[in-house]
Recover the amino acids of this structure.
């Protein structure tokens, strides 16, 4: 038995982007047992991880008290391997046979995708793609909810307003793709989002055919959402955790960007693509705009998004 402590992200998207690294490590040992430490938003992602012993939920506290709690919960064990993607000091005060504590990327400033950065951290080539561990309960829920027909999945909300494409443009995209002559003509539309995203979802669904539109916003847990997305003919969404979840679940995935950098946070995989608003930006400049309360994707027109979506769909149907 190999006991592994894996300390990963708070945000859902970052946790998914590091999942391929965990999957690779688990596959390298015949009998791995893993404890995962992460933030409360990401914790539900890991309930079906093979060899899971425990998920330690790290809720942020003043003065870094959450790191002390993690140490208290792990110091009594001897770990065969500690992998710390949070660059914390806690990992250095644990008994470990091998210890991998991530440091700042030592590159020359050239943008590096988070998946490649995680792989380089352990010297893994090629970078392992993100994965989504689904259980039977999540798959059964998806079978019950998703229509027995092609489905266009949309995620029109994001964690920050400045990353959101306008709801009316999501609706226009859905009408163009699923209407007569569209690449997904006759398909149903499913809307996904978390608690608090309902108003954005309603702004999209109000413009669509009610008989072929399904709004799951705020109604599903993360693995149920992932299982539903795995059944989609196409996913289109803003730069968000749901975008990374769709790609990890194997759905053809189109991500919409601006001003975040798709070279760093774009959806990962062969069946993915990105469209950005405006000129290329450097991820290091994001702090200058993250307080914006208005969308910074206003200049992203329908035409390039529709063209990118059409190309992804054609790639799926071309022998």
């Amino acid at each position: 038995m190999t006991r592994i402590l894996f300390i990963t992200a708070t945000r859902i998207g970052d946790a998914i982007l590091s999942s391929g690294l965990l999957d690779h490590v688990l596959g390298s040992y015949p009998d791995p047992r893993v404890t995962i430490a992460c933030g409360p938003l990401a914790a539900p992602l890991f309930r079906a991880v093979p060899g899971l012993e425990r998920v330690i939920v790290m809720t942020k506290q003043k003065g870094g008290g959450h790191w002390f709690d993690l140490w208290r919960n792990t110091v009594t064990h001897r770990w065969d391997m500690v992998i710390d993607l949070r660059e914390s000091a806690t990992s250095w005060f644990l008994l470990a046979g091998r210890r991998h504590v991530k440091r700042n990327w030592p590159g020359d400033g050239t943008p590096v995708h988070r998946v490649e950065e995680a792989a380089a951290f352990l010297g893994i080539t090629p970078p392992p793609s993100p994965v989504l561990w689904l259980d039977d309960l999540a798959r059964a829920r998806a079978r019950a909810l998703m229509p027995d027909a092609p489905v266009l999945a949309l995620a029109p909300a994001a964690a920050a307003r400045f990353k959101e494409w306008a709801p009316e443009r999501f609706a226009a995209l859905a009408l163009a793709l699923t209407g007569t002559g569209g690449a997904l003509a006759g398909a149903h539309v499913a809307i996904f989002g978390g608690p608090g995203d309902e108003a954005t979802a309603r702004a999209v669904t109000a413009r669509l055919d009610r008989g072929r539109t399904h709004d799951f916003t705020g109604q599903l847990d993360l693995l149920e959402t992932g299982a539903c997305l795995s059944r989609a003919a196409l996913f289109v969404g803003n730069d968000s955790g749901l975008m990374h979840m769709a790609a990890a679940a194997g759905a053809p995935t189109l991500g919409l960007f601006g001003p975040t950098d798709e070279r760093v946070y774009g959806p990962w995989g062969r069946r993915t693509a990105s469209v950005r608003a405006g000129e290329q930006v450097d991820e290091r400049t994001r702090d200058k705009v993250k307080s914006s309360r208005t969308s910074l994707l206003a200049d992203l027109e329908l035409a390039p998004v529709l063209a990118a979506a059409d190309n992804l769909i054609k790639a799926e149907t071309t022998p």
